[in-house]
Design a protein that fits this description.
This protein is an alpha/beta fold. It folds into two domains: about 160 residues, NAD(P)-binding Rossmann-like Domain (Rossmann fold, 3-Layer(aba) Sandwich), CATH 3.40.50.720; about 140 residues, N-(1-d-carboxylethyl)-l-norvaline Dehydrogenase, domain 2 (Orthogonal Bundle), CATH 1.10.1040. Helices cover about 50% and strands about 10% of the residues. The protein has 13 helices and seven strands. Keywords: Gluconate utilization, Oxidoreductase. Belongs to the 6-phosphogluconate dehydrogenase family. Pfam families: 6PGD, NAD_binding_2.
Length: about 300
């Protein structure tokens, strides 16, 4: 099967390779022309020799995806299908689908999980759209998913794929935060002498074993004290959207919400809120406070490192 793939970054590039290994013809476009197969979206669409044409978009969510979908709507024909495989917010899907429907072009939203390991292990796929449009893309889904019966779901109508991926990533936030806090406590005590070994022991036979735990063990094998990593953690949006939807639907999510706020805390070198807490403790209880000049001096003398970057 022929497929156009827009965005050949860490995931898109590996997806192109996995599809080619499965025998599919991939026409790849990227702003970095050194890794692209064609020089423009027009050339990508014109390179197809079969129809209907399927074009998979793997570019940053928001304006880049919306602009790409809009341009494809002007280039594609009735019966063609666009797949948004990026981390778009599910509310964007209906807008994109309606825009393409004016030209008779189908739309499928695909939540994709697998990261840089997808080439080797396959990608978990959660898709939304009509049965007709999903069926057109099914050979591609089959090639990208892991071997076996699991790893792919037609989750529902347009938007269901990205909504499912949003919740998936929210859960991921909570799991990573729990592992990170456990690691920090293990590292803070002098009772445990082999922290990486403890975490490694959990990877078999325990109820907390997971691929995320395997990856934490791998990170510690490469950098036992995580000295090369700053405890600053970004969020790509899905955690925020998950919490917002939890509020909209009155669903309690204390763990995922706390893990999102923990990421915000990681970006503060000197938390204003914690300054206020220290000042209040000093005011009502006479508790000692650490002056900024003192903290800087202690830091220069070699204070403790940052927490794990999850």
């Amino acid at each position: 099967m022929e497929i156009g793939l827009i965005g050949l970054g860490k995931m898109g590039g590996n997806m192109r390779e996995r599809l080619r290994r499965a025998g599919h013809t991939v026409i790849g476009y990227d702003r970095n022309h050194e890794i692209a197969d064609v020089g423009s979206l027009t050339e990508l669409v014109d390179a197809f020799t079969t129809s209907p044409r399927v074009v998979w978009v793997m570019v940053p969510a928001g304006d880049p995806t919306r602009a790409t979908v809009k341009e494809l709507g002007e280039l594609l024909s009735e019966g063609d299908v666009v797949v948004d495989g990026g981390n778009s917010r599910f509310t964007d899907d209906r807008v994109n689908a309606d825009l393409l429907a004016e030209k008779g072009v189908g739309y499928v939203d695909a939540g994709v999980s697998g990261g840089v390991w997808g080439l080797q292990n396959g990608y978990a796929l959660m898709v939304g759209g009509t049965a007709e449009h999903v069926a057109v893309v099914q050979p591609i889904f089959d090639a990208l998913k892991p071997e076996g019966e699991s790893g792919f779901v037609h989750a529902g109508p347009i938007g269901a794929g990205h909504f499912s991926k949003m919740v998936h990533n929210g859960i991921e936030y909570g799991m990573m935060q729990a592992y990170a806090e456990g690691y920090e406590l293990l590292a803070a005590t002098d009772v445990v002498e082999d922290v990486p070994g403890v975490l490694r022991s959990w990877t078999q036979g325990t109820v907390v074993r997971s691929w995320l735990l395997d990856l934490l063990v791998k990170a510690l094998e490469e950098d036992p004290n995580l000295d090369d990593i700053k405890g600053y953690v970004n969020d790509s949006g899905e955690g925020r959207w998950t919490v917002e939807e939890a509020i909209n639907h009155s669903v309690p999510m204390p763990v995922i919400t706390a893990s999102l706020f923990a990421r915000f805390s990681s970006r503060q070198d000197d938390s204003p809120a914690m300054k206020a807490v220290a000042a209040l403790r000093n005011q009502f209880g006479g508790h000692a406070v650490t002056k900024a000049s003192q903290a800087a001096a202690e830091s220069g003398a070699g204070g403790p490192g940052g927490t794990v970057d999850s």
